[in-house]
Write a structure and sequence with these properties.
Structural class: mainly alpha
Strand order of the largest sheet: 1-2
Oligomer: single chain
Strand content: under 5%
Radius of gyration: 24 Å
Number of strands: 2
Shape: globular
Number of helices: 10
């Protein structure tokens, strides 16, 4: 069964790669009305990269070296009746094939921003920096949440749960769904950037539908594989979507303009009647 699912996934991945390459070639041939909406700022990048690196880096250190979450397994402590009814409806035993496919759809969704290779090469640094910040911040938030929240994965309430997950402590890190977080971060980022760069293009609807469709499939597969509850997936989707939209917005020229000093704001002048001062809001 595992081998069959793996072959199907490899076929799906190959088909997607062919479709993606062909689609990118077609996109590059279309004459879009390109808008340059984003810009980098030393202060902004220092803050966002710093926050992302701090969150992700500190979570990694605390998990792998400090071990602030012990993840001690106690089968008697698992109480299914304490799980919300809505989450119980979607609980499933562990499925390795669906786990593998869900990881694949997550990777595909995270790769969608590669379509911005169609932009002029001078934009690649800006887009790449924004995407790195998006993933670092989203990953840091979900990793710290996993460290602070102890929640056994759904498959732990069924027979045949993976013992290797118990050994490495992953069994107790269900909340939120990391795969879903990163998938929705990639989907929201791709949608936001494409819509900003090509506001008049009808392709933006396809990009949005395809991106969020794959992200949604990832979340569903994480539940079907027994790795997550519905609430894990919903929270992961919110975190990822928020980061995917917010980080690009913080790089828009419209956002920067809110902090620019208006040269005509304050005025002082000398008149025959004395000194006058005015300020325009």
């Amino acid at each position: 069964m595992v081998r069959i699912m793996t072959r199907k996934f490899k076929g799906l991945l190959s088909a997607f790669c062919v479709f993606f390459c062909a689609g990118t070639a077609n996109l590059s041939a279309v004459n879009f009305d390109y808008v340059q909406p984003f810009a980098l700022n030393p202060v902004n990048e220092g803050v966002e990269l710093g926050i992302g690196a701090l969150f992700s880096g500190s979570a990694l250190i605390c998990d792998k070296f400090v071990h602030i979450k012990t993840n001690n397994f106690d089968a008697e402590a698992l109480n299914k009746s304490a799980i919300p009814t809505l989450d119980q409806i979607f609980m499933r035993p562990y499925s390795k094939p669906l786990h593998i496919v869900g990881t694949g759809t997550m990777a595909l969704t995270m790769a969608i921003p590669a379509i911005f290779a169609i932009l002029p090469s001078k934009e690649w640094l800006t887009i790449g920096t924004m995407y790195a910040e998006t993933l670092l911040i989203a990953n840091g938030i979900k990793e710290w949440t996993k460290l602070l929240v102890h929640r056994a994965r759904p498959y732990m309430y069924f027979d045949g749960y993976p013992m290797d997950k118990v050994a490495d402590g992953d069994w107790d890190s269900s909340f939120p769904s990391g795969h879903t977080t990163l998938a929705f971060a990639g989907a929201a980022f791709a949608t936001m950037v494409f819509c900003q760069c090509f506001p008049d293009s009808n392709w933006k609807y396809g990009v949005a539908a395809g991106s969020f469709g794959l992200a949604l499939i990832t979340g569903i597969l994480r539940m079907l594989s027994g790795n997550h509850y519905l609430t894990d997936v919903l929270v992961g989707a919110v975190i990822g979507t928020a980061c995917g939209f917010l980080v690009p917005y913080l790089h828009t020229k419209g956002f920067y303009s809110k902090f620019e000093r208006r040269s005509d704001g304050a005025r002082a002048s000398v008149t025959p009647s004395g000194l006058t001062f005015s300020y325009n809001f």
